[in-house]
Amino acid sequence: MSAGEETAEDLRRIVEATPFRFEQNVIRATISLGVSEWRQDFKTAEDILGSADEKLYEAKNAGRNRVVT
Question: Using one digit for the tens of pLDDT, what is the confidence trace for 38-66?
Answer without folding.
Answer: 999 999 999 999 999 999 999 999 999 99
